[in-house]
Write a structure and sequence with these properties.
By secondary structure, the protein is mainly α. It is about 70% helix and about 0% strand.
Length: about 60
């Protein structure tokens, strides 16, 4: 009977630890914004599709 209780306790502690680790939020990337990506987002918001494509093509063009 004691072994069942100890096994149940171990399983409960393991499950609680993994659930807590999965719920830990990561810091938001507010400080590190890309200016060209923000400009492309603004162009998309204004529905300037060709302007947004031009910005993104310049940004990720292979060098």
């Amino acid at each position: 009977m004691k072994s069942r209780i100890s096994h149940a306790l171990m399983i409960a502690l393991f499950a609680a630890g993994t659930a807590w680790a999965a719920d830990t939020p990561s810091p938001s990337p507010d400080g590190d914004k890309d200016k060209k990506l923000e400009a492309a987002r603004e162009a998309i918001a204004k529905q300037d599709w060709s302007g947004a494509q031009g910005i993104l093509r310049k940004r990720w063009r292979p060098t």
